[in-house]
């Protein structure tokens, strides 16, 4: 059943290990929310003036492997005095999403196999859950549908960004926020297709599970 999504929450998480490792713990979470009506009037280089952001770092109580350190630019020493993911964190995220105009859809690149199940696991471990009406959509598939049929779709978000903008996004190097901003700019570059794709291809966030 299709929905007219009113708020898109672009998200990315950093973890202690590879996406395939379901024992990974979150080290950073970035959520950037924008209303659909603000997005559709923007061009691909200008973001909406009204953006709601939540960026949190976590002490994971687990060693961060070398590849994850390289990708996120975070070490265990950096996070030594940060709090871990707790019930209070879960409630903070729930309140952040609750105040947004709904329907609300989380959007993540490779979210189906990475961001959504890992975030779901963190919520379950503190005996919390997002509202049943929170939706989610994997932007990899939405961006794939936005490409002409005769063009191969890059697997990495940064390569899709380069195809549209012929450069890298400046600033905030190595952060989850930079990754989310790249995704947001790409979504704007293909907005005529992407947002309607989300209306039809969303999933319920609480349908995800991870052992």
Automatic annotation (TrEMBL):
Recorded GO molecular functions are: 3'-5'-DNA exonuclease activity; metal ion binding; nucleic acid binding
- Which GO biological process annotations does it have? DNA catabolic process
Instruction: Identify the InterPro entries for this entry.
Output: RNaseH-like_sf, RNaseH_sf, TREX1/2
UniProt key word Zinc-finger: no
Quote the cellular component terms of the Gene Ontology held in the record.
cytoplasm
The prosthetic group or cofactor this protein requires is:
Mg(2+)
Keywords of this protein's UniProt record, alphabetized? Answer: Exonuclease, Hydrolase, Magnesium, Metal-binding, Nuclease
State the PANTHER family in the record: LD40940P (PTHR13058:SF19), THREE PRIME REPAIR EXONUCLEASE 1, 2 (PTHR13058)
Its protein name is Putative deddh 3'-5' exonuclease domain of three prime repair exonuclease
